[in-house]
Amino acid sequence: MDRAHVTVVEHPLVQHKLTLMRKVETSTNNFRRLLNELSALLAYEVLRDMPMHEVTIQTPLETMQSGLIDGKKLCLVSILRAGSGILDGFLSVVPGARVGHIGLYRDPETLQAVEYYFKMPPDMGGRDVIAVDPMLATGHSAVAAISRIKETNPRSIKFVCLLAAPEGIETLQNAHPDVPIFTAAIDRCLNDHGYILPGLGDAGDRIFGTK
Ligand code: URA
Known about the structure:
Layout lengths: L5 E3 L3 H11 L5 H19 L5 E7 L4 E7 L4 E7 L2 H11 L4 E9 L6 E7 L8 E5 L2 E2 L3 H11 L5 E5 L2 E2 L1 H10 L5 E3 L1 E2 L2 E2 L5 E2 L5 H6 L3
Parallel strand pairs: 1-11, 4-5, 4-7, 7-9, 8-10, 9-11, 10-12
Antiparallel strand pairs: 2-3, 5-6, 13-14
Bound molecules: uracil.
């Protein structure tokens, strides 16, 4: 199967906010706000091909047919815990979307992703899923999350992150070549601890002010 596309959203507003988020001195407060704003801008690109339907409306002057998004078919899936930062930004532009959560942790012995939480809306069969996680690092949790989401038979799946490492893109594309990836940047590589370089640090810690 051909690999689905990787889209780097290069809009100046996205890149500007990403630069501010990378800076070590950016506060938790500002980091969270910037992630929210940036995610809404990513959503604009990711949702470009959203299915729509026509409705009849009345303007002050006449009746017309006009388009609306099939918002209820959309399911945003947040990969816990850092995914919630992107989720909020997406919900600010598609408030009608359904939301699922998947929680994974890395087993320190096997380094494999272990699921501890999985809750999806009903009727996943017809839905278009957008799985969100700020950092596509090794790609292991993205692969595990998408494998699990696929068990619910959604109509389509996209993966959205803020930063991707080449290693993570390779791993995700090998496992799920049908899933397009959207990111604000592709960074250089991973360090020995699985952090993206130059990156922005631990996304969860920076969103929630933990260490
Ligand atoms: N997860 C993070 O939060 N940051 C990284 O650099 C890699 C994985």
